[in-house]
Design brief:
Elements lengths: L1 H27 L14 H22 L1
Length: 65
């Protein structure tokens, strides 16, 4: 019975030690600056207009034929 108690104590010690190490590593970690927000350089607007014009051409093609 005493052997089971020692085994449980050893397992508990290992679990507590493993739980303590990540928190120590996180406390010493450097904090990085947040990433800048994405900005539109006009290419997405141009692509949207191109898709709209292609859709219009497709619709007109089906209407004409």
């Amino acid at each position: 019975m005493e052997m089971i108690g020692r085994a449980l104590m050893a397992i508990l010690l290992v679990v507590l030690a493993a739980a303590a190490f990540p928190s120590v590593a996180a406390a010493n970690a450097e904090s990085f600056a947040p990433a800048p927000s994405p900005t539109s350089d006009g290419t997405t607007i141009d692509q949207g207009i191109a898709y709209a014009l292609m859709l219009l051409a497709l619709v007109l093609t089906y209407i004409i034929h």
